[in-house]
Amino acid sequence: MIVREAYDENEEAERIVGTVQDLLLRGYSPGDMAVMYRTNAQSRALEENFIRASIPYRLVGATAFYRRREIKDVIAYLRVVHNLADAISLNRIINTPTRGIGGKTLEQLQIWAASLFMQPGDALIELVTNPDIQHPFNGRATNALHTFGQMLYAWRTIRDEVSVGELLDLILEQTNFHGYIVDSAKDDDDAHDRWANVMELRNVAAGNEMLLGDFLEQIALVSEVDDLEEEPNRASLLTLHAAKGLEFPIVFLAGLEDGILPHSRSLDDVESLAEERRLFYVGITRAMDQLYISHAFRRLGYGGWDVSVPSRFLQEMPHELVDGGSAQQRRQQTKTKASSWEWPSSSGSSSSWSKTARPSSPTSSSSRVSTARPSNERPSSTPQPEKSLPTPKYLRADIPDEDQETAPKVARYKTGQKVRHAKFGAGTVIESKLTGSDEEVSVAFPDHGVKRLAASFANLEVIE
How far apart are CA 19 and CA 34, in angstroms? Predict the structure, then answer.
């Protein structure tokens, strides 16, 4: 077996597909090869690289990443924020998660919008911004539409002032999308898998600096390839759970890191850890001729880049069966050759990659390594437990204790107002609400992202 370390999950996927291309030139067919991994969310980077390389593949026992329900829901939110005229996406999200906007209310909205010669999305914004407008909705429906419309208006207001990743964080936070996933899941495992898919999309958004429209166009280009006629001879992409009973001449095992395989939820339980070890055994015994194992130096997690720890299962493998040196040697090679990773070919000789690794960011290979984590900071040997969506970093502005004696009766700031802060400069109010004895204002600042501020201490000046 051949074990190598990639710089990150994107380079790992790129190098796996590069090896597949090399093996195709040596006479193997796509159907001879399988890429296996622990969680469904890991398929995203692999799918995109197989598509770019025009290598036919199939997902065994799973749905293509961009066709998964929760991913289509989140992308629909972004599409509506980008384009109010996208009625199909609006219909998908207007009551997802459930917010009291049923089919009858939606039909009323569509009819009312048509009477105004507007798209339903534009009519929804009109309902929020024009308090005097006449409409057909009863009190309950009005409140539900108004609540959703306010969020949509706020997201559209800041879409050009924050990154796609920050916008997505705000949408997930304000819609309680994690709660929706948990409530609609079949069981805990299903909830974990579906939320991991959402986090993978979030990582994609956080890992680029595209404008929202460009980001959506890129996703469309990748996802629409699935509509092409399927080639019968295809490489297989599958989880280890789906691999039982199958065999392939060439097998790739991706993501061999503590926290992935074994999964983070199994690390403190002897029986669960034993089950993870059995999954690893299933994977390595699926290969008939050649086994490639890979792990990444770093992965994009919930709070940023984290240095990974190679799977403890690799240390249990007989050294004479492993081509690739020790974990320490592989880590040193990664630091030395951060953007030119090599794997030996199936024939046993060392062959260089035909393509140079594409950096994850527009920096040199040396700077890419140095930005992962300070050199004097050692990665923990125990991965952090799985988390729900954390409070986005740009919403973590300190809020002073509410120690004033009287609470404001009316909010002073309104959505869409232009304000100025002494430190952050000019910004746009995206939300304001009364909290205890104070008013909490969320403001989008072009150069500082979104800040949540206590009005009594922020001294915001209304400039428009």
Answer: 12
Spatial strand order in the sheet of 449-454: 449-454, 438-445, 425-435, 418-421, 461-462
Q: Does any domain span residue 94? A: yes
Looking at residue 426, which CATH number applies to its domain? 2.40.10
Contact 82, 213 (CB under 8 A): yes
From residue 191, alpha-carbon distances to 24, 299, 370 in Å are: 37, 21, 35
Q: What is the pLDDT of residues 361-419, one digit of tens each?
A: 333 332 222 223 333 333 444 444 443 444 333 333 333 344 444 545 678 888 878 88
DSSP label at residue 40: G
Residues 129 and 253 in one domain: no
Q: Which amino acid is at 318?
A: P
What CATH number is associated with residue 253?
3.40.50.300
Looking at the fold, whether 243 and 300 belong to one and the same domain comes out as yes
**Is residue 101 packed enough to be buried (19+ CB in 10 Å), middle (13-18) or exposed (0-12)?**
buried
On whether residue 347 sits in a domain, the answer given is yes
pLDDT tens digits for range 194-251: 999 999 999 888 877 789 999 998 888 777 655 444 567 899 999 999 998 899 999 9
Total structural domains within the chain:
3
Q: How far is CA 234 from CA 34, 56, 222, 243, in A?
A: 9, 5, 18, 16
Give bridge partners of residue 235 from the DSSP assignment: 57
Domain with 431 in it: 393-462
Bridge partner residues of 306 (DSSP): 299
